[in-house]
Design brief:
It is built from five helices and six strands. By secondary structure, the chain is an alpha/beta fold. It has a single domain, classed as Mannitol-specific EII, Chain A (3-Layer(aba) Sandwich). Strands 1, 2, 3, 4, 5 and 6 form a six-stranded mixed sheet that branches. A hairpin with a 2-residue loop joins strand 2 and strand 3.
Length: 158
């Protein structure tokens, strides 16, 4: 599974305005409702319920809110770069400014986990996150997110 399987250029947003975790989740739910056709309230309820289990703020300014919802047939991703970091109750207590929302069908077991793992690996790349933070254009954000990570050169060991 690749990041391009999860997001499209129209599901990447730059300079999203939010002043709190709740407001960030509301903004993501609003945008996700338009993209998925699911009710905004249902999406927000799923995200808030997931946050009650434990924060999806994984540290270093990154959060991966996620949940399963009925009414969709594939995993949907939305990426938002906030204009300013917000208190997100993240594991490292740092403000969050990069959010990657994942919504999966209720029946998606392995696909949901594969998507979470892929997003986590992608956003663990410090250089990529620096590029994301330095960009204020949604098309550029999409290009940064979907560019392939350089693979170690097998010839370098010879």
């Amino acid at each position: 599974m690749e990041i391009s399987d999860l997001i499209q250029p129209h599901t990447v947003f730059a300079d999203v305005k939010a002043t709190s975790k709740k407001q960030a989740l509301q903004e993501l739910a609003r945008r996700a409702a338009t993209i998925t056709g699911c009710p905004e309230r249902d999406i927000l309820d799923v995200l808030i319920e997931r946050e009650r289990l434990g924060t999806t703020g994984i540290g270093k300014g990154i959060a991966i809110p996620h949940g399963k919802i009925s009414g969709i047939d594939k995993v949907h991703g939305i990426f938002a770069k906030l204009s300013h970091g917000v208190d997100y109750d993240a594991m490292d207590n740092m403000p969050v400014d990069l959010l990657f929302l994942l919504l999966a069908p209720e029946s998606a077991g392995a696909d949901h986990l594969k998507a979470l793992a892929r997003v986590s690996r992608t956003l663990r790349d410090k250089g990529r996150c620096e590029k994301l933070r330095g960009s204020h254009d949604a098309d550029a954000l999409y290009a940064i997110l979907t560019e392939e990570a350089p693979q170690p050169d097998a010839q370098a060991k010879s």
